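Session log. Operator J.P. requested a structure for one protein chain; no other inputs attached. Running the standard single-chain path with token output.
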Amino acid sequence: MGGPNINQDETFFNKKSFLTVSGQLHLEAVANGLGNVYTFGPTFRAENSKSRLHLSEFYMIEAEIAFLEEIKPLLQFVEKLIKKVTNNLVKKNLSDIQICQDLNKDEFTWLEKDFLTITYEDSLKIIEQNAMQFKHPVNTHKGLKKEHEIFLVKHLGNVPVFIIDWPKAEKPFYMKEKQDDNSKVLAFDLLAPGIGEIIGGSLREDNLTKLKEKLPNQADLDWYLDVRKYGGVPTGGFGLGFERYLQAILKIENIKDTIPFPRWPHNCSM
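Structure written below.
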């Protein structure tokens, strides 16, 4: 960072800094003072993928809900949000939608159906029973591939599907463990037809001792631990990839067509 007169051996912030991958940890801190909060802004990923479902820079809607102690209310909130926003688009802006794709109201009948919920273990069983259909074999230690996610939604009736009860090893440190099985966390992914995962979320670990065990040498996150140390409230939240949401509801084949200046690995021309 810097102009022509800046010594490039120096850094702008006097420390090693990185592009934003999420505002979630900061939202957790703010939620302890303000209650329910959200943010919407650019996010960056270093996934080396040029697939039709990946961007290196995208926009993400993240929300954090205070005093949340169970996963079910979080799933209900997400389902209501998706249905409310999409119904408003269909009712008020169908002509705009049709500029993107030749869609009619019949394409949105899934809005009238309940979203399904299955466990991660049950999703693996379905995939293993249909293993011959996939390029990639299921690996219980590496999560689900995109082809698995898309198949699951189609197999279960082409309605959005919540996958819950993920293995702790598959998810980040901040997710709350299940009380009856500490090998799993209270997390979810929401899969959409033709796209796969568009939202990920969880309850947040509010046990300071457990967080310290997971973050033994993370001085940069002392402030995050302090949120629990000095008395916090239980929270939960999620992140929604905006371009993937558009891709899902508008049935756009390639995510690069949802944003004016897409950026992906080895391409940042504008």
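Operator note: The longest helix spans residues 71-100.
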